[in-house]
Amino acid sequence: xxxxxxxxxxxxxxxxxxxxxxxxxxxxxxxxxxxxxxxxxxxxxxxxxxxxxxxxxxxxxxxxxxxxxxxxxxxxxxxxxxxxxxxxxxxxxxxxxxxxxxxxxxxx
Length: 108
Fold this sequence. Notes:
Elements: H1 3-13, H2 19-30, H3 42-70, H4 79-107
């Protein structure tokens, strides 16, 4: 392997991958499962629900920043950043959908 190939490989491996965005999105979605942990006290069981929306916002922001930095690089793998953005929208959409459903139910 030549020196140029080693340098190019090192630069490609240090690039942004969107793994942080993906991890935050997965954590935000997973926190909706915390109310089903019936062996925990209610205060501890429901606390992660308050953190799901900020984690979703962070996943969207970090994923957008990574996609912005990857712009113009044809070799970049954008799947993790995109998956993080999609998973980050779920914790934001669920409370909005529930609020709309509640409003419609109260209007009847």
